[in-house]
Design goal:
Elements: E1 11-17, H1 24-34, H2 43-50, H3 59-72, H4 76-94, E2 96-103, H5 116-133, E3 138-139, E4 141-146, H6 151-163, E5 169-175, H7 188-196, E6 200-201, E7 204-205, H8 211-220, E8 226-228, H9 236-244, E9 249-251, H10 253-258, H11 265-277, E10 282-284, H12 289-292, H13 296-305, H14 311-324
Parallel strand pairs: 1-2, 2-3, 2-4, 4-5, 5-6, 7-8, 8-9, 9-10
Helix pairs in contact: 1-4, 4-5
């Protein structure tokens, strides 16, 4: 629910998925507008489903729900409303004035039934509508590649990101469970081409995988930022490599706690304090806010309420987030309007 009081601090969020960032009642409305048959005709059963409202959450639960929410968002009309609602909600709720929603357009076109360009353009229209309504906000869209897709399909996503980089797509990312034959080396050329075209690059790593996988990613992909990456805390050499490359990690505490990649608050404290002491820049994010019933204000409060970071340190992470954004800056102007 939107906060009735405007927070004093402007915030920046760099990592969250559109599939799990829309409030349940809005998803419910969009599904009915599209005539989609839902698993339940009872709203509260649907609410419990899309918020993972249970004590034990498995990694597989995340991806099962992504399928449902991506299906609901699989039309130009629904994508336009999704992006519009997410940007406006983030500003009203947490005073987020800079944000980068991410989504995979291939998972919004019903296996090729819908035109990929129309899906992306609809998302951009939703962003433009929100930015016109909230001129204090700046935003850019991130297009996700997926490890389960073949290289050829991911290359199409990169080509679309390049096509719309002057319209509001600001970067690319790789996410999803590992598929057969996926190799990071195969994406080095695509990432280089994307950067040459003016896009920025990041990747999901150091989350469900190992620190060795993360080390390999740092060697083979040209990167501007990292999503998650917390497993670097176990290896001083990897942390030093992150610092040398001047990469900011986008950490998602509640998300990683929910699936036990981070065991508990004490483990979270160990991770974050180790990164801080070794000079690794990081910022705090939600990952899947509606599914986890969280927001950026709650994530930052988690840091201070549990003595993980001081108020001053939290302010530093917020500054790092603004500095690491892929959205172009200009005084008193959003470049995509």
């Amino acid at each position: 629910m939107d906060s009735p009081v405007r927070p004093k601090k402007e915030l920046c969020e760099l990592h969250f998925h559109l599939g799990q960032s829309v409030e349940p009642h809005i998803l419910w409305s969009i599904a009915h507008e599209q005539g989609i048959k839902l698993p339940s005709k009872d709203y509260w059963e649907f609410y419990d489903l899309v918020t993972l409202n249970k004590k034990e959450v498995a990694w597989e639960d995340y991806h099962k729900l992504f399928h449902l929410t991506e299906l609901i968002q699989s039309s130009p009309v629904s994508m336009e409303r999704t992006v519009y609602e997410v940007i406006g909600g983030a500003y009203r709720n947490s005073n987020i004035t800079l944000l980068e929603p991410s989504f995979n357009p291939m998972f919004r076109n019903r296996s090729g039934e819908r035109d990929l360009d129309q899906i992306i353009l609809a998302a951009l229209r939703g962003m433009e509508k929100a930015l016109a309504e909230f001129p204090q906000v700046r935003a850019g869209l991130m297009l996700l590649l997926d490890r389960r897709l073949p290289l050829e399909k991911n290359a199409i996503i990169v080509s679309k990101a390049i096509k719309y980089c002057d319209r509001g797509v600001v970067g690319i990312d790789i996410a999803g469970p590992f598929g057969d034959g996926f190799r990071y080396e195969d994406y080095s050329k695509l990432y280089t081409e994307a950067r040459a075209a003016g896009l920025k690059t990041t990747v999901h790593t150091g989350e469900d995988g190992t620190v060795e996988e993360m080390d390999h990613v740092l060697d083979v992909l040209p990167l501007d930022r990292l999503n998650h990456g917390f497993r670097a805390y176990t290896d001083k050499k990897v942390m030093a490599k992150v610092v040398k490359k001047n990469l900011t990690m986008c950490l998602c505490p509640t998300s990683n706690l929910s699936v036990k990649f981070i065991r508990d608050i004490e483990h979270l404290k160990e991770v974050i304090q180790t990164l801080w002491k070794n000079g690794v820049k990081f910022c705090i994010n939600t990952d899947n806010p509606s599914m986890l019933r969280t927001n950026l204000k709650k994530e930052l409060a988690l840091m201070t309420d549990n003595d993980i970071l001081t108020d001053k340190q939290v302010d530093q992470t917020v500054q790092w987030a603004f500095e690491a954004s892929f959205v172009p800056t200009a005084p008193d102007k959003n470049l995509y309007l």
